[in-house]
Amino acid sequence: MQFYNGFSLANGEHFFEAFLDTSDFCIAGFSYGGIKAIQEVQKRLENNLRVDKLQLLSPAFFQTKSEKFKRLQLMGYTRNSALYLKQFMELCFAPYSQKSVQHATQTKEELEELLYYEWDIITLQKIKHAGVMIEVYLGGEDKIIDANGAKEFFQEVATVTFIKEANHFLQIN
Fold first, then answer.
1. How far apart are CA 59 and CA 173, in angstroms?
2. What is the mean pLDDT of residues 20-41?
3. Whole-structure pTM value
4. Region 51-67: what's the mean pLDDT?
5. 135 vs 79: CA distance, rounded Å
6. CATH number of the domain bearing residue 34
7. Within-domain flag for 64
8. What is the count of structural domains for the chain?
9. d(Cα 125, Cα 46) in Å, to the nearest integer?
10. pLDDT of 4-25, one tens digit each?
């Protein structure tokens, strides 16, 4: 399995052990890592490499958010990235207590990519048509992404598991 972490995170697979398929032909991504995961699937399919499953865990779904929201996020990060990331992590775990995470260095450009990424239903249909099973996991208590909008969007092409009480890390309590 190839796993891609969320924005500013490293070594986060352990949070998702209950959901992850550890097959060599599975590509998974959490939040921002979902964008990287779908790009990896596209690359592998273009090179005729086998991919059986794409798993998107709380994929970075901001296309229903306003331009104002996106600009405020970038402005907050630019002003004080440490404070922004601290508050971001608190929201990732809300409404439950925050757990310890490993951090990776991220850039404003990567945050911008995350906020402005447009999930494309045609691309997802092509991936599905190529025989790749797509699974999406969402938390109903997610304070980061538009989980309901993501559920509506992805259910056309994926098996969507919506965990009503789960946060962005798909954890309950």
1. 21
2. 98
3. 0.96
4. 98
5. 36
6. 3.40.50.1820
7. yes
8. 1
9. 15
10. 999 999 999 999 999 999 999 9
